[in-house]
Structure formats: C-alpha cells, structure tokens
Task: inverse folding
C-alpha cells in the first residue's frame, strides 16, 4: 500500500514536471533498479503526447552543438524540450562520459528545458531500453519535444533511434569513404538530412550524393521525401541562423505529415516492437545469465570450452532444453 | 551418415586452406543457415592456433588502408593472413556494404591472404556471433594472423573486438571532442594505439592526450603499457614505411607477452564468455521471438501496448512465466 502510494506520488510529481523526481527515476532506470521498472509501469498509460526526435550521425558531425541551437529555436516557439544525450559506453566502466553536455548548460536555468545524459553498463541492449524508458519519463513530464541524441551509427544506435517518431541524420563534408558506408546504413531510417558545417569544402558534393541516393528510392512512405537542410555555424547570425529556423520548421512539418497520413501509427508500432524485444531480453535472458554466473556454472562452462571439450552451440542448446518449457 | 561425411570433408578442405569451401561457410554463417552451426561444432576443437588482432577506431581513421599495409608487412615475414572486414549494417537491408574492401584487392592473387567482409541482418548480436565463427574458420584454415577490422566504436564493436587477443585502436588528429569520449570508451580495451595520418596538425597533442590517460592507470595487466605507434602515409617509402614495420613488430611483441605472462588464457576466457553469451541469445531468445511473431501474438501485443492496455514489462514477465521452467 505504501509503495503504491509512493508510486502514485512519484507519478503526480513527474506529471507536474518536477525535475528532481524525474532525474532520480532516470538515474534509477540507468542503474536498472527494480523499483524503476514499476515506475515505468505506472507511467506508461500516460505516455504518447511528446514528439520524439532522434538525432544521429558520425562522431565529430557537431550533433551536440546542433541540438543546443535547436533547443533555443524551439524555446522561441514556446515549446518545452527534453533532451536525452546518449553517450558511448565502455562495458568495463559504464557511466556517462560526457556528463550533461557542457554546451547545453546555457539552458540550465530555463524550466522549459530538461537535459539528461544516459549511459549504462548493461550489455544485451540495456542502453536502448533505458533510453526508451527515459523518453517516457520526459513525455509524462509534459515536454512537447524530446530530442534523443546518439553518438555513433552502429546497430545499437539504430535501436535507440527507433524510439523516435522523426529521425534526423547529421552529416559533415569531407569525412572519407567509410562515412559513405555508414550513410548507406542509416539512409533508410532518415526522415531529415542535415549537412552540418556546410561552409566547408565538399558540402555540395555531399548534398548531391544524398540526392542521388534519394533518387533511387521509388516511393517514399507517406509521400515524404527526406529534405536536406544545410547548416553552417549555428552561433553566427545571418543565413546560418535562418537555416536553423528552417530545420525546426521541417521537424514540425514531418510530425504533421506523420499525423495526416496516419504514419504516426506505424512509427509508434516500430517503437513498440523495439520495446517488446528489449523487455523480453531483460525478462528472459538476463536472469538465466545471472543464475549461471552466480552458481559458478558459467566459469565451469568456460573451462570446458577452453579445453575444447565442447562448443558454444552445444552448450547453449543444453541450457535452452533445461530452461525453456 | 552422409551429412556427417560431408561435414568431415568440409573440415578437411578448410584445414587444407580451400578458399571456396571457407568462403561458402562464412557466407552461410552470415545468413545464419542451420548447417553452418553444425560446421562450427566440427571446427571448434581445431581452433586456437591463430593470433587474432582486432582493429577499431572512428570512421575516417584510415583503418582499411592500415590493414592493407599490415598485410604486406606480415607477408614479408612469410606469415599467412586472414582479414575479416566487419561492415556497418542496416537492420533493414543487411548485407556487406563495402564488399570485400577494394583497397585490399592487390592481395587477391596471393594464396597466403584471405579477405572477407561480413555483415548480417540479424538483430540481437548476430553480427558479433558471425564474426567469432568466421574467425574460427580462418584459424582452422591455418592463417597465422587473423585481422578483424570494425567500423565504429559502439557497444557492438566492443563485443566484436572482444573476439581478439590483441586490440589496436586507431586514432587520427583533429576529429573534434566527441572523439575524446569514444577514446575514453575504448581506452580500456586497447593494447596498442596507432596515431594514423600523424603528419597532420594536432598529432603531438593527440599523443600527449593518450599518454596522460595512460599515466592515470596504476597497473597494467602483464606489465604491458600500451605503446603508441605513429603512422604517416602508408604507401610512401621512408620513415612512414618504417613505422609500419614497427607496428607489425609491436603486434608480435604483444602476443609474446600474452604467452609469457599467461595473459593469453585471460584473453581466451574473455573470447569464450562473449561466445557463450551470443550462443545463449541465439538458442533461447531468438526462438521465442520467432514463435511469437509467427503465431501473430507479437502483433496482438503491439496493439495492446499502443492502446496503453498494458506495458512492455508486464508483457515480458508474462512471456517469461509461460516459457521459462
């Protein structure tokens, strides 16, 4: 009864936008405390109001600076903003490396802005799950927009970005040909392309490369052909400042298109599928690994594998036979 | 009986270094064909001879060029080399985007070199598992060195790189401050640092940054302080060519140190733990997801979640109760 009461109190405070309660819950989600899971259960029915915007792209593409400028732009429109900065994680140390990104601190005094960094030591997709849950918290806080910024473009980043309704891919000119490959990999999830540092050499070439990739697509979902927004130096007045307003407007356009064409339902389904996968991984695989480690079975298996007495597939099938109904 | 005979024939051919048989098996692993799993069971007891070297670092760091130059260097020492280029994967298209890296084609005619690209459409760590298995194939082919090159530095890349005995982290000067974060994230797994494009501005600053990070470490495993190797333009003669020979020598030194200090056992245990985790994910979680999708349950659950009738944690616990003994 008391726990239930505390839970309702927590929900009420988060709905009222209380920063301390929300921060504590996000930290508990990151640390995978069991109470945090119950809090999400209570929060979940109240989610679904915020427009979630994922921002991804290569390291060095200037995403944090862009997010900072976007916050200012949305604030001018009197929209409230939550920002989730997802940091690369070392599986050895865990912990958010960049902290609550320094550049965004100029918004620290603004009650309409709530910035949190997220990282987790958990393997098995723990980070993506924590991101999905932290988005729910910011949603229930009443933020109009939740910006999710990830570093990198691997499979895990795609999982993270799949918690969004609108995906922005940030590119910069002159990053070499590996970037091409990454671009191709995230091409299909992009709703908006940003060419950042567009005053650099090669920005027009990059733009035509994206265009030719887009030209190969025969039909765009909901008739939305991902626009390409060129951005220079966010902090200078003049044309660059205007391009930022353009980006903010395009983000709004995309959301309206999602609603009008009923694509929003599709995006929410994608988000939901990611959440189911992650929750299953957590509820099924994690306890088995934990039990095997604590009982010493894992160490014993490692020994047998090192002595080549068995192989990983045979071991896994034995465990599955023993543990699955 | 016939399958068993074919299996033994396949093993014999791979042990003899047959490129076609090995290539086909690696492709089947990538496609997650069930027969490929049985092949790995047969191969596994014969593994453990090759020195597996993981090469990671940011996109644009010039890793492919470096690997190409390293191949040439090891070939001069009359060592045989397998190369596994791990490509970023789109979860929507799958498939190796860069193909068998173009730059390495000058080694295509050399029977002592075997280069394969790897990518997979599978979620749930499928790529890392395929990498581990492909390394086994190259090991059994008799390659003295297996170089595993990954793009990116996310959690999945760390999993991939954990299949290695020696980890090389490649950095380039002047990549902005997000690189700093990534550097910190992969700092702990680095055995050797390479500063590539060291003729660029900022290379000395980068070097002292790495040095100060290393200075904070109180004790190095096996007394191995990760050396920093500076490399300029691999294809030019003179000092840059020499620095490459230095890198090849340092890689050999690290392996000797692993053997002498018995750290090799630790590394092999780390490799083994990664393999057990991946095999369990494959044997336990994958079939549950497949069954739920095929029976239509997954779609029905998605509907309930979208209508906010339940939450992902409650769903996952129901499934766990039903499926776990």
Result:
């Amino acid at each position: 009864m008391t726990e239930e009461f505390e839970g309702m109190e927590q929900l009420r405070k988060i709905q009222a936008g209380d920063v301390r309660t929300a921060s504590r819950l996000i930290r508990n989600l990151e640390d995978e405390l069991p109470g945090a899971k119950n809090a999400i259960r209570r929060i979940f029915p109240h989610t679904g109001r915020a427009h979630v915007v994922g921002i991804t792209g290569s390291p060095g593409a200037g995403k944090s600076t862009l997010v900072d400028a976007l916050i200012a732009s949305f604030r001018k429109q009197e929209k409230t903003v939550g920002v989730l900065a997802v940091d690369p994680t070392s599986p050895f140390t865990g912990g958010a490396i960049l902290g609550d990104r320094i550049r965004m601190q100029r918004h620290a005094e603004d009650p309409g802005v709530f910035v949190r960094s997220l990282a987790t030591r958990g393997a098995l997709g723990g980070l993506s799950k924590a991101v999905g849950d932290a988005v729910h918290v910011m949603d229930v806080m009443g933020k109009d927009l939740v910006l999710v910024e990830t570093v990198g473009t691997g499979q895990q980043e795609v999982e993270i970005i799949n918690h969004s309704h609108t995906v922005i891919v940030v590119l910069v000119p002159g990053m070499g040909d590996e970037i091409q490959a990454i671009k191709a990999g995230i091409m299909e999830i992009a709703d908006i392309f940003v060419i950042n540092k567009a005053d650099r050499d090669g920005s027009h070439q990059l733009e035509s490369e994206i265009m030719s990739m887009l030209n190969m697509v025969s039909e765009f979902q909901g008739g939305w052909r991902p626009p390409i927004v060129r951005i220079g130096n966010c902090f200078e007045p003049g044309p660059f400042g205007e391009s930022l307003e353009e980006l903010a407007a395009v983000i709004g356009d995309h959301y309206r298109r999602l609603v009008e064409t009923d694509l929003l339902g599709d995006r929410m389904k994608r988000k939901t599928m990611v959440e189911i996968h992650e929750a299953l991984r957590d509820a099924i695989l994690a306890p088995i690994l934990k039990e095997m480690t604590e009982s010493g079975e894992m160490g014993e298996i490692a020994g047998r594998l090192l002595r080549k007495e068995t192989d990983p597939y045979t071991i896994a099938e034995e465990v599955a036979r023993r543990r699955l109904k």
Chain B touches chain A through 84 residues (CB under 8 Å). Residues 89-101 of chain B have pLDDT under 50 and may be disordered. Chain B has two domains: 47-261, 278-323. The first strand of chain B starts at residue 51 and ends at 57.
